[in-house]
Amino acid sequence: MRLRNKPWAVKLVQDHPESVIDRPDPSQKINWSKRFADISKPLEIEVGPGKGKFITTMAEEHPEKNFVALELQMTAAGMILRTKLAKDLSNLQILCADAANIASFFDSHSASKIYLNFSDPWPKTRHEKRRLTYKSFLQKYQTVLQENGQIEFKTDNAGLFAYSVHSMNNFGMHFDFVSVDLHNEKDEIVAANIETEYEHKFAAQGNPIYALHADFGVK
């Protein structure tokens, strides 16, 4: 979902290069040891975090981990940055770049988890390759994730969910958790779930939230 352009976001991003990596050269790996105070912490990445409610909440609740928000839209990056600064989240970095280049920005097998929350469904068949659960993206995630790394995926779009299950299954992934109505799961699962802005909106409209956790098994 494209956000309305906010001129303040561009200036905020430009004023905080210590927190945002703006459109880096994909031919060079990023030295994350210079971006985080403690690089030994587990690294988790959210691809397409939107306004950033999920990733900023995760960073706030889990100071024992490092987080990267990989977001293409400058306005969204600015919104995430504003929250990061307000909450002084030193364990969160923002990478303003195309997710298609994710394997270029991280060392192989360096991340413990990748989150895909309410990604654009790209419903037209001719746009299949743009879906974040298309096989070429899965291959890149496999490169970035550690051997026991996991993808956590949520959507309100039944078509994208069905496609993603099929795509991941064909890729040989293992499913640790699958739900077609996340908000009506067991209490402990619901309590552990951190909502995104879109998730809250969609669920309030009575839409079921689909979710899965999957890994690549032994590489």
Automatic annotation (TrEMBL):
Keyword Methyltransferase: yes
Reaction catalysed by this enzyme: guanosine(46) in tRNA + S-adenosyl-L-methionine = N(7)-methylguanosine(46) in tRNA + S-adenosyl-L-homocysteine
Pathway annotation from the record: tRNA modification; N(7)-methylguanine-tRNA biosynthesis
Pfam families: Methyltransf_4
Residues where substrate binds: 124, 156, 196-199
Enzyme Commission no: 2.1.1.33
Residues that, per the record, bind S-adenosyl-L-methionine: 46, 71, 98, 120
Domain of life, source organism: Bacteria
Signal peptide: none
Residues forming coiled coils: none
Keywords: Methyltransferase, S-adenosyl-L-methionine, Transferase, tRNA processing
One cellular component term from this protein's GO annotations in UniProt: tRNA methyltransferase complex
MF annotations from Gene Ontology: tRNA (guanine(46)-N7)-methyltransferase activity
Alphabetized InterPro entries for the sequence: SAM-dependent_MTases_sf, tRNA_(Gua-N-7)_MeTrfase_Trmb, tRNA_methyltr_TrmB_bact
Region (Interaction with RNA): 126-131
HAMAP family: tRNA_methyltr_TrmB
Functional note: Catalyzes the formation of N(7)-methylguanine at position 46 (m7G46) in tRNA.
Similarity annotation: Belongs to the class I-like SAM-binding methyltransferase superfamily. TrmB family.
Protein name per its UniProtKB record: tRNA (guanine-N(7)-)-methyltransferase
Species this chain originates from: Lactobacillus kimbladii
Lineage, opening ranks: Bacteria, Bacillati, Bacillota, Bacilli, Lactobacillales
